[in-house]
Design brief:
Elements: H1 4-26, H2 31-38, H3 42-49, H4 57-61, H5 63-78, H6 83-98, H7 103-111, H8 130-150, E1 165-168, E2 178-180, E3 186-188, E4 191-193, E5 199-200, H9 205-215, E6 222-227, H10 230-238, E7 243-245, H11 252-262, E8 268-271, E9 280-285, H12 288-296
Parallel strand pairs: 7-8
Antiparallel strand pairs: 1-2, 1-6, 2-5, 3-4, 6-9, 8-9
Pfam families: HTH_3, ThiN
GO molecular function: DNA binding
Protein name: HTH cro/C1-type domain-containing protein
Amino acid sequence: MQFVEEIVVDEFLPTVRSLLAGELREQGLTQSEVAEVLGISQSAVSKYAHGDVTTNDRIAADERVQTLVTDLAEGLAAGDVTPVQALIEIEVLIRELESGGDLLAQLHEDAVPELAEHGTGFRVHDPESDLRTSERVLSSLRRGLRILENASGFSTLIPAVGSNLVACTPDANDVDDVAGVPGRIFDVKGRTTVPAEPEFGVSEHVATVLLAARRHGSDAAAAINIQYDEDLLGDLREAGRVTAEFDESDDIPSSIGAAIEDEPEASVLYQTGGMGIEPLIYVLGPDAESVADTVRSLL
């Protein structure tokens, strides 16, 4: 794991300081004056001057870096630019070069190839980035799955078709925006078994239920399917959960839509089965952990 900040510290800053030290020396500043302007030691300036510091050729060759270094060196030498202003200008350039597809972003992708999968629009420092959002959903899902794995007796609630705990992004539109367990969660000799790490786009059934509920007004962002049992429904109602029945033999989105319209506050959906259809309960909630906690409370 390598952070983009490490690219900045290990490659960008040494390169820019080396270029800037050289430009300042050409502007007539002494080694001592260069050290004072840059806030580094004279020995560091000497290393830059003698090429003893490793620099990055791609950064040094970037036209924006070269232009900024030249402008700052001239301004610092003339006294028109203060060291603080120079720092700010360099920080601004760093943020620009970190944006999706730009120089530092490319260097970061070279170091962490997985980042390239998220496209050129990705920006590491963007608090609303799709990657940050999806990773938070996956993190929540992993915590929820741990709750279920450690919940004594959860395997008894797993239906024959298997369970799946799913969670979606805030603006989820389809199953690709919903993360779940590949292959579902199964009962293997009385033990809850999660066969693989959660991924997006791997749960069609439970994801469809969650998305349908959201499209008809539910604010749920996670869901799980468990065995149907009247006693379980009773326990959920006693806990304050509103339940609503739907017909899974019909079009699921339409059936769930009708159920939510009848019970807008419903956070538990269920169907009692039919020819070739196993009866199931679907517990919905704001996140994977809370859904898992609700299920654990039934044990």
